[in-house]
Queue: 4 jobs
Job 1
Amino acid sequence: MFYDTAADNHGLKHNPFKALIVPRPIGWIGTRSKAGICNLAPYSFFNAVSDQPPVVMFASAGHKDSLANIEETGEFTCSLANWDLRDQMNLSSAPVLPEVDEFGLAGLTAAPSTMVKVPWVKESPAAFECRHWKTIEMPVQPGKIPYVVVFGQVVGVHIDDRFIKEGVVDTGAMRPLARLGYMDYGVITPETLFTLNRPTTGPDKRTAEVKPGPWDGVYR
C-alpha cells in the first residue's frame, strides 16, 4: 500500500506512522515550575541526538506543562522507564491539572538532582539531568495539533550501580521500555539483546569485512 501523508488517505483504522517508526525510547521528562510544582510525563517522541556534547530531544504535541516549566526554568530531567515501572509510567501520562505532582500521583520518589533543581525518578535504573538548549516549532498541518521539539544538553547522569557489570552498563538487565504504535510497548531483555562487531574496511577502502562472533569490546 501507499498513502499520501497530507491527504491522510491510508484507509486503515488508525494512522500507521507511529507503528512503523519503532522502537522509540520513552522520554520520562521531569520538570519543576517556578512555583516549585513538579511534573512528570512520558513522551514517545524522544531520543539522543549527539554524545559530544550529550544532547537529548523530545517532541511535545501542543504546549503542555513540561514545555511551560522548561521555558520558565531552563531545566529538566529524563528518567529511564523500565518494565518494573511500566504502570507508574503509564499513570504519569494522565492529563491532570498543572498543580498536580505526577511523582506523587504515580507513587514515585522524587530524587534530588546534582546539577539542576529538577528531581528525577529514584526508582529508575538511570536518569539524565538536562539544561535547555533550544526549542524548535515543527511545521503545522491544517487542523492538526502543532508539535514543538525541545533539545537539552545532558549535564549529569545517574546510573544504578546494580546495572554496571565489568565496566559497562548491562542494558538488558535494566529492561528498558520502548514505545511502539497504537497502545503497544516493547521491552529489551537479556534474551532479546545481541551484539555485532562494526565492519572494517580494506586498505583500498573498497572492501569491508566483519569479525564474526559477539562484540570484542573494540569501538570501530
Job 2
Amino acid sequence: MALRVCLACVLAAGIFAAGYLFRDREAGSRPAFHDMRVNHIPDLVSLVDHDDPAVRSLAERLGTPEAAYAHIRDRIRYEPMVPGSSPGEILRAGAASCLGKATLLCSIYRAMGIPASDVRLIVGNITVQDRLIDHVWLDLEYKGVCLQQDPSGALGIFEFGQFRGLEFTRRFVQEENFCFNDEGFAVISQLNRFRNGM
C-alpha cells in the first residue's frame, strides 16, 4: 500500500504540469525545471464536487447525462493551459483544460445521481502531432454499457456514446496512469493493457 501511494505521488507530480506550470508565470517566459507543481491525491480528488450549488443547478436544468456531455463539450471552451480549478470556477470562466472539462462533467454526472462506482476520470498519455502529452477522459457505466468519453475537443468532437468499451483507449491512448473521482484514487496497472490485447 505504501509503495502504491508513493508511486501515485510520483505520478501525480508529473501530471497536469502543463496547466499548473503556467499558473503564476508571465506570458512569454519559458518554464524552468523547478516550476513544476506537485498535485497531491486529495487535491485531485477534491476537484470533483457534485455538491457545488452551480453544478447541482446545471445538472437539474440539463436533466440527462447525454445533455450534460453535450453542454460541457460545446459550451465550455477547451483551453489546455488553464489550471485545474473547482467546477463552479470553471462554469463561471466558461473555459477549462481537459482536466477541468472532465472533472466538471464527472461532477455533473455525480449530481445527477450516477454513483462513484460508475464514473471515473482516467489520466494517461496520448500522442498528438508526434508528441506524447498528458490527457484526461472519463469512463462511464451507463445503461449497462461502458463508455469512454472525451468532452475536451482536443482530439476531435465526439458524441456521447461514440466510444464503447476500450475503443477510445485503443484509438488514442499510449498509456493509462491513474484514475480518480470524488471517492478515491488508484494507479492503473499496465497488466490491464496486456490482458485486453492492447
Job 3
Amino acid sequence: MPIYEFKCLDCNESFETLVLKKDEEVLCPKCKGKNVERLMSSFAFKSGENFTPSSGSSSCST
C-alpha cells in the first residue's frame, strides 16, 4: 500500500500517511491544514549480496 511522506507548508510538520486514491485529499495531522506537499521518499535497494538502505532508519539482512 502506498505510504507517502508529506510536509505541511502552514505549520512545517512532516508526516507520513496512507494514500489510496490519486486525488485523495491529505490533511496535516497537527494543524488540519490542506497546504501540504509530497516529499521524495528514500528507499532501499539490493546490490549483489549486500542490502543497503539509503537512509539509516532500518535495515534487513538477506
Job 4
Amino acid sequence: MKKDIISEDLLKVLACPVCKTDVELIEYKDGEYGLKCVNCKRIYPIKDGIPVMLVEEALTECDKKV
C-alpha cells in the first residue's frame, strides 16, 4: 500500500535538498517508491523504508532508470 511507505507526518517536514521545495510520494517503477520534488522534479528513492535525500542518489524524470 502506498500510504504505508512513509508516514504523512514525515512527508510534511521533508523538502528537496536542492531547491527546498515540498516533495510528494510517487511510484516511479513497479513497486519502487520515491519522493519527487514538485519544483525541480528530482526523485529521491526510498530504500528499506528510508528516504535517501542525497542529491547524488536522486533520479530525474529524463533519467533512463526512471
